[in-house]
Amino acid sequence: MPKFVDRWIFGPTLGEGAYAEVKLLLHKSTGKAVAVKIIDLETKKVASRAVRKESSIHSVLFNPNIIRCFGRRSELNVEYIFLEYASGGELFDRIEPDVGMPAWQAQKYFRQLISGVEYLHNKGIVHRDLKPENLLLDENDNLKISDFGLATIYRYQGKERCLDKKCGTMPYVAPEVLFGHYRAEPTDVWSCGVILVALLAGELPWDQSSEDCGEYRAWKNGKYMSLTPWKKLDTSSLSLIKNVLLHSPSSRYTIKDIKQHRWFIKTFQTVGSIEGHICHDEADSRQMLEDENLTRFCLSQPELPRIENNASEINLEKQPGFSFSQPAHIEDLLVCTHVYSTQETQQNTYQRLVRRMTRFFVTTALEATVERLINCLDNENYTYRINDCRTITINGDSRKRVLVYKANLVEMDGKILVDFRLSKGCGLEFKRRFMKIKAALDDIVLKDPVTWPIAVATKCIP
């Protein structure tokens, strides 16, 4: 076990990747939270240099639309990168598959994305893997760019270099990257354009931006208007996207061009406002209330005070009371273990949930829930396995890429929560499949979780 666990507690896994997993880390005394990226160099020896590079780049970034990096720590064959915890969850979770989201909301997130990318480029850094899965939301619903594993410096002391590494996630990769010689900035701009399509239409336009892909070939040749997702977009947003997703990087919009486009700067007509969020209509307002209520359970534990600290480096040994720049409220966590023995007789505050929409409570008991879920997976011909602690790992393919997600069965105050989390692959496809599974279990899904009294410690089902 790492040395710092005498003051800190490992919480649940927040995300997984090819070389690492991200877990929640909680301070025992203060309840402050941080995300820790854990890389096992024993099994991923090639990752050592990449980890040092990622940490070096990320630790110098200070921007409200970029996840903070508090530092790195090495212990034996394990590397730990300590990151700001974004309690709002992942951006892809806010996108309704095949629908998207209201234009005002897409504009808000897109503006924040462009602001973060502009900051990176001003620092001479390119991200190279921008996608909804790498965009997180804080407790105030502000977008944060994360995961700098593929980032690199392309400009130093005013001198810019061309890049040649083929990297990124295929549906979001600019066409010139596939040829292995490209300028940095236009490739990030391209990825932003694909993200905007996903926000507005709830789907990706192509598997990859090459002539081998029919959808991309139709786009490039101007024969796309009868196809999705393009026919879902209005004239103004389509005008912006057409200039961002130009095949030639020299003709492609720059960030300056994007910020001057009429769709980017327009003020959308509003009908109502919910807690500071602008809504288009009554349906939007009602949905926002329902989403917000999912995270506002009636708790007996009071909210902890918030403490701000702008320290740039985390020192887990010398600063046991360290407070992070975006401290999570302890009530916002879904933790699958008891805290520590001295608190087992007390009601702890690990009760409210991270704001994710890929979960639901059921009216059935554990065994019946497992049986129904397995029957659903069998009917859809999904490949899956059941782990010891009631976690079902589901495997599949999406857009020619591997898709892996997990269903965790958690007991809360005698009721069963079925909590889904993406492990690998496309977030939109993951949510599409989640919604299909939820619809198949509709008769056992509890419809009104807001009124439940949550009065006991959250724990995994043994």
Q: Any overview of this molecule?
A:
The protein has 462 residues and is an alpha+beta fold. It has helices spanning 47-58, 103-122, 184-201, 214-220, 235-244, 255-260, 262-265, 282-294, 366-379, 427-440, and strands at residues 8-16, 21-27, 33-40, 69-75, 78-83, 89-90, 125-126, 135-137, 143-145, 152-153, 155-156, 159-160, 272-274, 277-279, 359-362, 383-386, 391-398, 401-412, 415-424, 459-460. Strands 15, 16, 17, 18, 19 and 20 form a six-stranded antiparallel beta sheet that branches. Strands 1-2-3-5-4 form a five-stranded antiparallel beta sheet, with helices on one face. It is globular and about 60 Å long. Residues 271-353 and 450-462 have low confidence and may be disordered.
Largest pleated sheet:
6 strands, antiparallel
Strand content range: 15-25%
Shape: globular
What is the helix tally? 10
Give, in order, the helices and strands.
EEEHEEEHEEEEEEHHHHHEEHEHEEEEHE
According to DSSP, the number of beta strands is 20
Please, what is the average pLDDT? 78
Sheet/helix structural class = alpha+beta
Low-confidence stretches: 271-353, 450-462
Please estimate the helix content.
25-40%
Q: Report how far apart the termini are.
A: 23 Å
Q: Nearest-angstrom radius of gyration?
A: 22 Å
